[in-house]
Amino acid sequence: MQENVTGQTMEAIAQIKDSTANPAPLGLLGFGMTTVLLNIHNAGFLGLDSMILGMGIFYGGIAQVIAGIMEWKKNNTFGTTAFTSFGLFWLTLVALLVLPKMGWGDEPTKAAMAAYLFMWGLFTFFMFIGTLKLNRALQFVFASLTILFWLLSLADATNNAFITRIAGFEGIICGFSAIYAAVAQVLNEVYGRTVLPLGALKG
Predict the structure, then answer these.
(1) Is the CA virtual torsion 139, 140, 143, 148 positive or negative?
(2) Which of 12, 100, 152, 197 has the fewest CB atoms within 10 Å of its CB?
(3) Which residues make Cβ contacts (< 8 Å) with residue 23, sequence separation at least 6?
(4) Taking each helix axis from N to C terminus, what angle separates 24-42 and 63-73, rounded to the nearest 10 degrees?
């Protein structure tokens, strides 16, 4: 508060402008690239080795958590919840694979993995409902990811390798859709126009 020469009270109003970068492309790329690589394995083309585990820890995991924290700074509840959760998903997935080999717990059963993947599918479905207020690109990412989780859950519940392979191909599509959404945001911002459309909603 300030007081002028006539004794009248004046309010000093400060307008804060957000000049920080958009963290969503980082989160989407961390998710998308790691998802593509893991599902190339699920489709039967690659083994599950340290390349996929390393991506799961650092780019799919840590990078997405960082993006989620940055979204919190930008007051984006959806982005914070999605990126932080999926970053921690990748870290838990790596832990489920690595901890038993280190003697820090029993290897999860097929039923346990089915339950794990089902719950992540349920979470993703609820987040998909949130994308109905955002854009078509994110709607596709979250819808296809919901299907992916539930296909993988079904594969573990039934011990059906064919369903895992189908999920692998579907997951590759899901991962590339996230990469597209990320690159579109980067290029559209750099060029100051729509280079790659995201399918913005009207109204």
Answers:
(1) negative
(2) 12
(3) 66, 67, 70, 71, 74, 79, 83
(4) 150
The string of pLDDT tens digits covering residues 60-113 is 999 999 999 999 999 999 999 999 999 999 999 999 999 999 999 899 999 999
pTM above 0.85, yes or no: yes
Q: In whole angstroms, what is the distance from residue 39 CA to residue 183 CA?
A: 20
Question: Tell me, what amino acid is at 8?
Answer: Q
Confirm if 23 and 67 have CB atoms less than 8 A apart. yes
Residue 98 CA to residue 114 CA, distance in Å, equals: 18
Do 195 and 59 meet the contact criterion of CB atoms below 8 Å apart?
no
Give the span between the Cα atoms of 99 and 36, in whole angstroms. 24
d(CA 87, CA 120): 12
Hey, is 3 helix, strand or coil? strand
Amino acid at 138: L
Q: How many residues are listed for the chain in this entry?
A: 203
User: Are the beta carbons of 38 and 174 closer than 8 angstroms?
Assistant: no
Long-range contact set of residues 182-191: C-beta below 8 Å, sequence gap at least 24: 182/24, 182/25, 182/26, 182/27, 182/28, 182/29, 182/32, 183/25, 183/29, 184/137, 185/22, 185/24, 185/25, 185/28, 186/25, 189/22
How open is the CA angle 165-137-20, to the nearest 5 degrees?
Answer: 120
Among candidates 86, 100, 78, which has minimal Cα distance to 29?
86
